[in-house]
Write a structure and sequence with these properties.
It is built from two helices and seven strands, in the order βαβββαβββ. The radius of gyration is 17 Å and the shape is globular. With 154 residues, the protein is α+β, with helices and mostly antiparallel strands. Helix content is 11%, strand content 27%. Strands 1, 2, 3, 4, 5, 6 and 7 form a seven-stranded mixed sheet that branches.
């Protein structure tokens, strides 16, 4: 799975001189939005080792329905950053190619120590504890709590 954060996208879009990039160009499975007050933390996902997902019951949830996940939640392991290529510049509807957002990412998110690769977002997988053969679902509105790398917790 691929996760991006809304604050990282907002920061990137503030730097793009033309039309902002919609989240859809990054083809993420999960888009995380910061909740609560405080300044946005763009690229905070660079320091995550995982994401705890907690199910938030909605009014439309029916208690009689077959449970499709663990009410206590699940954990996704962050596998590493997502290397980006020119595909993020291709309009998914018209197939028209643009320069952005790749040009701005190349200026701001290039990791020289990584062979000059450009990163945006993080790859995730169901946590090592797994859920056996139990079906798990992430839904819009579920609470996602980042788990920071221990070495980054000063």
């Amino acid at each position: 799975m691929l996760a991006i954060s809304r604050s990282s996208l907002n920061h990137l879009n503030a730097l793009i001189p033309q039309t902002p990039a919609p989240a859809s160009v990054f083809r993420a499975n999960i888009i995380l939005a910061q909740s609560g007050p405080g300044p946005e933390r763009p690229y905070d996902e660079d320091h995550w080792s995982g994401i705890r997902v907690q199910r938030v019951k909605s009014i439309s949830d029916n208690d009689d329905d077959d449970d499709d996940g663990d009410e206590a939640g699940m954990e996704l392991d962050v596998l590493g950053p997502c290397r980006r290529c020119q595909m993020i510049c291709v309009d998914q509807t018209t197939a028209e190619r643009r320069e952005e957002p790749f040009v701005t990412l190349a200026k701001t998110r290039r990791k020289e120590g990584e062979g000059s690769k450009i990163f945006f977002g993080v790859h995730c997988a169901l946590g090592a504890s797994g859920h056996g053969h139990k079906k798990v679902t992430v839904r819009v509105g579920d609470r996602a709590i980042p788990v920071r790398n221990e070495k980054d917790e000063d």
